[in-house]
Task: structure prediction
Amino acid sequence: MSIEYPRGYICDMKDSQNTSAASAGEPMRIVVVGGVAGGMSAAARARRLDEHAEIVVLERGAHVSFANCGLPYHVGGEIEDESALLVQTPESLRAALNLDVRTRHEVIGLDTTSKTLTVRTETGTEPLRYDALVLSPGARAVVPPVPGLDSARVRTLRTVEDAVALRRSADLGAARAVVIGAGFIGVETAEALAQRGIEVSLVELAPHPLPPLETEMAQPVADELSRLGIDLRTGVAAERVRSGADHDLVDLTDGTTIAADLIVLSVGVRPDTEIFEQAGIACERGAIVTDEHGRTSAPGVWAVGDAVASTDQVTGAHRPVALAGPANRAGRLVADDILRPGSARPLPRPVGTAIVRVGGLTAALTGANRASLRAAGIAFHTLHLHPKHHAAYFPGAATVHLLLHYREGDGLLLGAQAVGSEGVDKRIDVLATALRAGMGVADLIDLDLAYAPPYGQAKDPVNLAGLIGSNVLDGTLRSWHADDLDGVSDAALVLDVRTRGEYDAGHLPGAMHVPHVELRERLDEVRAAAGGRPVRVLCESGVRSNIAHRVLAQAGFDSASLSGGMLTLRAALGDRVIAEEPVSAADRL
Result:
């Protein structure tokens, strides 16, 4: 859903506003509703473009510009002083940019015909007229219909005050906490509380933490949460909260109960747009609908940030994107459209690049995942690889678990995910840039990335992803995936080409073992064991099985290599697929 305006409509509107303001001898009044990322970015840019405009920022909270992404780190103690979270204050914004910032001013009404807001202050209500209005109301925490969530022990983490209250609870001796929701904020909050010595249970309805991640990419995160001492409960939800004198009880849908001195609700957010929807601003499932310049359905009104229905670059889906980066960039571009409508660039469609630290790991993603691609009806390939983040021979080389989705046929990049202890941010940022540029997977081969042994490899993990993806596209490599295991086990010969030690340490039940360095001399054994069936090859990470696949394919076998090898298979399906006792070639025959 988008809004089409007559050509020149906004320009004509702005010209008339400027003419009216000039004839009246008054500056243009730009009112921004909501501060923090999008709103403050719009206000600051507007001032840099027009020194004479009257710019008013209305913020219903106590802080107009704070580091909301830093809130969990204050709870955990890594950011010691809460004042460090305050990026700007009304006083500093007045001094630097001559902005009229009014905190504890809540908009409770909007009349788009008279261009007037109704604002509730600490002393009453007052009208405020605007020439241009920027809506950046943000989002509110979702509160599910769970009995007992009105308990005094239930909190959210959206504001500086929330962070201070959570930290105070820890300081006052809270010993047990339940975090409901294992999204990015929920995971960060659980880790922060665990750092304070609190016994933490993390509850998530989805099958794994960080639901936007693919299952196989989320498993290392789940393992790391367990290593941090966090009790992770997935596939369950809170059914009710029972308040007690000394603590609360959280009943889960699986019949278990967790005692808690502190409960943090982190199950998502929804756009805070009710007032503006009532005023006739077009919304889609509660999110404000805008055109490519951030213009809403009402003349002279723009919108940015978490409350806006953005159009996903990859899938075309309309959804809010609650990320600080897109909100900041949108605020700047909206100010450009207000004050320079003829030359303002359109707002870019988001790709949803995000990153989170979990203990000693980093998890990051950009673009679409399987669920969103399937919902959009986009046919795609997936590849997995597990390279080192810098030269393997240089001390400290760590594995980067990397996943790419790309479109069938032309190889257009659709999404990427990475998990590891080092080098994750660099690779996701490169892939996010490539995705924004509309590059295909084969284009990754040619990226000229910085290399020295302490920093990368001559074939960077991103280059390697391009090489593998290109091989799949041109047929040099055929892949099979963890999800194919049941069908493969029934209809094909599974060939394990790892070393004897690796094989004996754990392998798929019924798999034939032939080390890849022996394969050329043992093709007759493999042919006899296959008995005309396809051969599906695997190794630990996918490198040796690719070599074996090429040997088999050129010997006339119907062959395919397991994407990501046993590392990906274990992460996707768990150790339940691993046999402890080796099965010899003779036994298989």
Residues 205 and 237 are 5 Å apart (CA to CA). The chain has 18 helices and 34 strands.
